[in-house]
Amino acid sequence: MGAMAQTIILIQPPSREQGKLIYPPLGLMAVAALPDAAGMDVRILDCNVMDMGEVKRIIREADPKLVGVTSFTGPMLANALEMSRYVKSVHPKVPVVWGGVHTSILPEQTLANDCIDICVLFEGDRTFMELCQAEDLTELDHIDGLLYKKPDGSFFKTKPRALIEDLAVLPRFPWQLVDVEKYVIPWAQAKRTLPIISSRGCPYRCTFCYNLVFNEQKWRGFPVERIQEEIDYLSSNYNLDGIRLDASDLFIGPGKQGRDMALAITSHAQSRGLKWACQVRTNQMSVELLEDFKRTGCNYIFYGIESGSKRVLKEIYKDVRLDNIQKVVARTNELGIMSAAGIMYDFPGETMEDFRQTIQLIKDCSILVRFSALQPYPGTPCYDLVRERGLINFPTTTEGWVHFDYNHPHGLSDIPNVKERAGEWNFKYNYAHNLLVTLKRKDWFFLETMGSSFVKYYMQERRRDSYELNY
User: Fold this and answer.
1) Quick check: 367 and 304 in contact, CB under 8 A?
2) What pLDDT was estimated at residue 468?
3) Which terminus, N or C, of the chain has the lesser number of Cβ atoms within 10 Å?
4) Distance (Å, rounded) from C-alpha 274 to C-alpha 272?
5) HEC states along 382-445?
6) Residue 46 φ then ψ, to 5°
7) Is the pTM of this model over 0.85?
């Protein structure tokens, strides 16, 4: 069988945490778009929604040219390694290619695993396409954006791959490569929703965010017409009544152009009779823009607030003002738009007074929260700071990162007994606080969702596993 007739297999290892929103394998769908548009045989195997026996059967019976595996830091790496070893057990000579944030930040650690042959670094669309086109997968010096093993076992790193400046050059998202119906979920007053990626990256500089490195602190939007066409395609083919515009790192781009693009997208969604949700920063919102959002069918906004302490916000380079946070959230509530906030604690140097200010803010704002401890992900300035101060001994192998505790605080702050009180705070704010806010809003749709999660929470906590509410 000729090389071009061989299958390109992409694997999403089991990675979904209970209580989390279920998402399609959007990263794999993105890198599949170019080879799929070129007529190559591409298969996406999402182990989150497929039977593992069926996944292994497909891999075993296929004639793959290469197998791609996505990765992100934490427990899912165990499943990624297991799937990679299985591929090698049935196809010893087929290259296993890893990509994703974890691989990009720690490529040498990743490639040190015997079951991995090639690492695609950072934005992988063009890099992966050139791999699919390559005739010899042992000599890849000419392909930018790789770290790979030479036949003699040595590592070779090629030139960095430049970001795609104009995302219009990419083909449409290949939804036909997944069983879309498995990802249709109820969300924020809409019974059938799917997520859409409208942009890549973020221009801001939060010290805990991977975007500073992975997307070079840049925001790039897909063409508005393309997003509108995707909304039409999904709403028509899957009978949607809602769209989630929160799959991107930041929905609204910089300046007036970014706001105009956002309104063009949301106005189109409204014209299709769709409710919609998004993820934005409070400093991007004004009273006028919020009113425009309400007019075009917005029913849910997730704000990245992080802290109620002015000092902490300054130290993490959040670049938001507390008075603006309060003003924006108050107006969101007045307009009847449901909202939630990302809240973190255990920042290096954070005091109990800082923590109290955060709690007071979420109470004053009467906003739902996703309350969790700061996690110093590799590649972030926060990670570098923690490592330099010797606050955590970070793993030196991929297997080590499997067991790194991303579910609880690490005691990075000056908050007394922060590790011991984490369980109490998780319950108090992710559940009790959110229940009170939900009852105050009379949001029965969300209450039903939270009620189901509430029961599962106790089941999880009894096993000391982490559990976050599905919102």
Assistant:
1) no
2) 39
3) N
4) 6
5) HHHHHHHCCCCCCCCCHHHHHCCCCCCCCCCCCCCCHHHHHHHHHHHHHHHHHHHHHHHHCCHH
6) -95, 105
7) yes
